[in-house]
Amino acid sequence: MADQEHTHTLLLVDDEPLILEALKRAFRKRYEVLTADSGDDAIALLRSRPVDLIICDQRMPRVTGVEVLKQALELQPDAVRILLTGYSDSESLIRCINEAQIYKYIAKPWQPEMVWLTVIRALESLDLKRQLQQSMELLQQQKDALDKSASVAIADIKGVIRYVNDRFCAACGYGTAELIGKNVADLRSAQHPPAFYALLQQTVTGGRIWHGDICHQRKNGEFYWIDTSIVPLTDQKGRPYRYVAIGKELPPQ
After folding, report:
1. The domain at 3-130 falls in which architecture?
2. Do the beta carbons of residue 40 and residue 63 sit within 8 Å?
3. According to the lineage, what is the superkingdom (predicted)?
4. CA–CA dist 58, 93 (Å, integer)
5. pLDDT tens profile 76-124
6. Do residues 192 and 226 make contact, with C-beta atoms less than 8 angstroms apart?
7. Can you count the helices (H) and strands (E) in the chain?
């Protein structure tokens, strides 16, 4: 496999050359592999190279595995940290769990299959975490963009308001605390006949998007018009559980 196809970088740390070479052979075909034969070298690499996963032996001269992984947590907190340790290293293991927040420890003598599966699962977990973070960041960006350009309100299936943004509050004249828990029907004006709201209700409760102009009444009694889209959020069976109203205020009519 060519280097450019590697999707993850591993840092392997052990002061025993044979063990370090065995670990390197196990992973170099699938991942980019960095190696360090001392804790000092490992920390230097962590300062200069981004890595996705670290496998570090505990018993090394000068700088122990616990210290390396503590530094890794500080320098590259997203990297997965795995400790290689002997059965008698229970005290070090507890320290590493508490201080370095390791993903897992592997007891010596370790089996190649166990190490391989641990790394695969750890990186799968890391990828899912990163995808979730990216999705959350994208959603936040979209929300920020929407909040700047439109008024937004979210109501439950009974019409009780659960969320409003600043533009919605500015348009109607009510504060957030006044609106949360209020029913959307309380904001209606007398400018529309009952049949108008009945059709709107029938559309959104059926899981379909409604779009049109609605006349609301501000807190001070003034009427104002909103170009509105009401989007039902539905469960797996297609039943609405929230309604999102997105609108832009229209010029006075």
Report:
1. 3-Layer(aba) Sandwich (3.40)
2. yes
3. Bacteria
4. 9
5. 999 999 988 876 666 767 777 777 788 888 887 788 888 999 999 999 9
6. no
7. 8, 10
Residue 4 CA, distance from chain mean position = 27
CATH 3.40.50.2300 domain locations along the chain? 3-130
State residue 97 phi and psi, 5-degree precision. -65, -45
Contact indicator for 180, 164 with CB cutoff of 8 Å? yes
**Main-chain phi, psi angles of 39, to 5 degrees:** -65, -40
CATH classification of 143-249, choosing from 3.30.450.20, 3.30.70.120, 3.30.70.20, 3.40.50.970?
Answer: 3.30.450.20
Question: Within the chain, which residue ranges are assigned CATH 3.30.450.20?
Answer: 143-249
Contact 187, 220 (CB under 8 A): no
Are 186 and 192 contacting, i.e. CB atoms less than 8 angstroms apart?
Answer: no
Interval 137-159 mean pLDDT: 86
**Distance, CA of 219 to CA of 226 (rounded, Å):** 15
User: DSSP string covering 180-211, please?
Assistant: TT-BGGGGB-TTS-HHHHHHHHHHHHTT--EE
Q: Which helix (H) or strand (E) holds 130?
A: helix 112-149
